């Protein structure tokens, strides 16, 4: 149902934010490293007006779910991200009670940053409603804080930065330590294919926070501030499984750096290596994703493929010859789903 259907009047303001797919640089953002995402066409849209009864009224059109809450209430599910994003803005200004309508075509639980798109869209809408003057980086940092405090996921900054400042036409090279960034073109003659494995996950219930804690412990044992400062030779000084976690982060940072000047063929090889590292060293893949990635990697029009997002299910991304994405997806999905998979095409739409 529309905003008018739910609240009886038109919204005062409507803003959107995209999901993202990460080509290289997984689990490096909370380790002070480098990432290489791009925005996807799918977006989350948030419409607002001021509430007249002192409560936040939050409605999801996709879930057909409504929650009516005081500002200091205990939201559940999707509303944690929504009200959490409003509450972190209260450090910037007095925020009135709000009517909030959410709609989205970013797949949830698929590793495409549906939560970041929601957070950024909410903060963008409130920012413009109240003319707070926040820029894209400030919005991303507030969205990250909302995810930490209210969703319980100690994420890095990549997802929120990609949703806030990335482009669907280019890759965003982001230094997550300094937030220095630039947009760079995709390898010429190739396009991005994103497919959902059908294996759902929720980060707060997965090994995400455990992996982050393991990285922090590795830094403590090595006497460094972040794994960005580690060398590959340092891995041998760490016990299992911390050595494997550190090896993934160190080699993944190196892959992002190499990709900036790599040929298209080498870029694909780096994506394949990244998936193997996520599967074997970070142990953050999923058997359904591994099967889908393997089928993609065997296809003649695919240069490379890997899991994307934090892992434990969700989507994979492939670099394919321009103009072949739909055909590749049809052929790969046919083989994948014949073995019991439930995959589907996400990008291109």
Automatic annotation (TrEMBL):
Source organism, top-level taxon: Bacteria
Galactokinase N-terminal domain residues: 2-49
One Gene Ontology term from the biological process aspect of the record: galactose metabolic process
Gene Ontology MF annotations: ATP binding; galactokinase activity; metal ion binding
GO cellular component, one term: cytosol
Gene3D superfamilies: 3.30.230.10, GHMP kinase, C-terminal domain
InterPro entries named among the record's database cross-references: Galactokinase (IPR000705), GalKase_N (IPR019539), GHMP_kinase_C_dom (IPR013750), GHMP_kinase_C_sf (IPR036554), GHMP_kinase_N_dom (IPR006204), GHMP_knse_ATP-bd_CS (IPR006203), Mevalonate/galactokinase (IPR006206), Ribosomal_Su5_D2-typ_SF (IPR020568)
Keyword line: ATP-binding, Carbohydrate metabolism, Cytoplasm, Galactose metabolism, Kinase, Magnesium, Metal-binding, Nucleotide-binding, Transferase
One protein family per Pfam: GHMP_kinases_N
EC nos: 2.7.1.6
KW Iron (keyword) present: no
Location of the GHMP kinase C-terminal domain: 263-336
Start and end residues of each GHMP kinase N-terminal domain: 81-164
Signal peptide residues on this chain, from the entry's feature table: none
Family: Belongs to the GHMP kinase family. GalK subfamily.
Listed name of the protein: Galactokinase
């Amino acid at each position: 149902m529309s905003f008018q259907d739910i609240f009886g009047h038109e919204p005062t303001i409507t803003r959107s934010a995209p999901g993202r797919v990460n080509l290289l640089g997984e689990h490096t953002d909370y380790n002070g490293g480098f990432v290489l995402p791009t925005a996807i066409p799918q977006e989350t849209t948030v419409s607002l007006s001021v509430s007249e009864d002192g409560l936040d009224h939050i409605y999801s059109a996709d879930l057909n779910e409504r929650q009516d809450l005081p500002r200091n209430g205990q939201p559940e599910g999707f509303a944690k991200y929504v009200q959490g994003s409003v509450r972190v803005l209260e450090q910037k200004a007095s925020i009135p009670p709000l009517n909030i309508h959410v709609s989205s075509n970013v797949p949830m639980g698929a590793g495409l940053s549906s939560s970041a798109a929601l957070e950024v869209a909410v903060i963008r809408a409130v920012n413009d409603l109240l003319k707070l003057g926040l820029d894209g980086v400030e919005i991303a940092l507030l969205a990250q804080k909302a995810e930490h405090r209210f969703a319980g996921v100690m994420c890095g900054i990549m997802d929120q930065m990609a949703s806030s400042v990335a482009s669907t036409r280019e890759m965003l090279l982001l230094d997550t330590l300094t937030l220095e960034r630039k947009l760079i073109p995709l390898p010429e003659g190739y396009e991005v294919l994103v497919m959902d494995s059908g294996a759902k996950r929720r980060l707060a219930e997965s090994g995400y926070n455990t992996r982050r804690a393991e990285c922090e412990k590795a830094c403590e044992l090595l006497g460094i501030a972040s794994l960005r400062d580690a060398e590959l030779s340092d891995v041998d000084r760490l016990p299992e499984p911390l050595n494997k976690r550190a090896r993934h982060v160190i080699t993944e940072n190196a892959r992002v750096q190499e990709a900036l000047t790599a040929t298209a063929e080498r870029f694909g090889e780096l994506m394949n290596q990244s998936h193997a590292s996520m599967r074997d060293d970070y142990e953050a893949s999923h058997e359904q994703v591994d099967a889908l990635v393997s089928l993609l990697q065997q296809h003649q029009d695919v240069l490379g493929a890997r899991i994307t997002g934090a892992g434990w299910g969700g989507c994979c991304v492939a670099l394919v010859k321009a103009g072949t994405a739909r055909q590749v997806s049809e052929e790969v999905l046919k083989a994948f789903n014949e073995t019991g998979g439930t995959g589907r095409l996400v990008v291109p739409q």
